[in-house]
Amino acid sequence: MNRLAFLALPLLLSSLAACSSTATPTQVVQASVVAAPVIAAPTTPSPAQTTQQAMLTTSIANGFVDPAAIALMSAKDSAEANSAQFYALQFGRPGAPRQWAGDKGATGAVSVGPYVRVNNLDCRDFTHTVKIGGQDYTRKGTACREQNGNWVVERSAA
């Protein structure tokens, strides 16, 4: 090794050491944590929620079925008739009966007409026939779907 290189090496090492010892340490600053935004639940119900609620509140006891037949129907009969009535009004094709069967031989069918717009509401004519113990009970009328989705009998005839 040549003498000049031997003398320059300690000088180089001392200048490197001076650089590292005199350098200012890097400060680490922690940023504030931002919470994720809270997304509020929608204020209007979904179509499925509206349909479910309307089905629960549309009742055959409100003019859709002859009261004499209701008096003879079991809880299962009423539940099946309610479901058939709602789905016939909500989704049924005009003239295509929606059949239902309860327990102990009670049966029925619901037929609907086309949608008609009355006072800004969707309305349909319906015929609901219940058969219990060989006796037919028929109720005809017009039902309209209110803004909240409930079907209400506007006009009924035996």
Q: What proportion of the residues is helical, as a percent range?
A: 25-40%
User: pLDDT under 50 segments (min length 5)?
Assistant: none
How many individual β-strands? Answer: 6
The H/E string reads HHHHEEEEEE
Helix/strand/pairing class, anyone?
alpha+beta
Number of domains: 1
Give the CA-based shape.
Answer: elongated
Radius of gyration, in angstroms, nearest whole number: 39 Å
Strand content: 25-35%
Largest sheet, strands/sense/barrel: 6 strands, antiparallel
Structure description:
By secondary structure, the protein is an alpha+beta fold. The chain has one domain (47-157). It is built from four helices and six strands, in the order H-H-H-H-E-E-E-E-E-E. The mean pLDDT is 80.
Which key features would you list for this structure?
single chain; 158 residues; alpha+beta; 4 helices; 6 strands
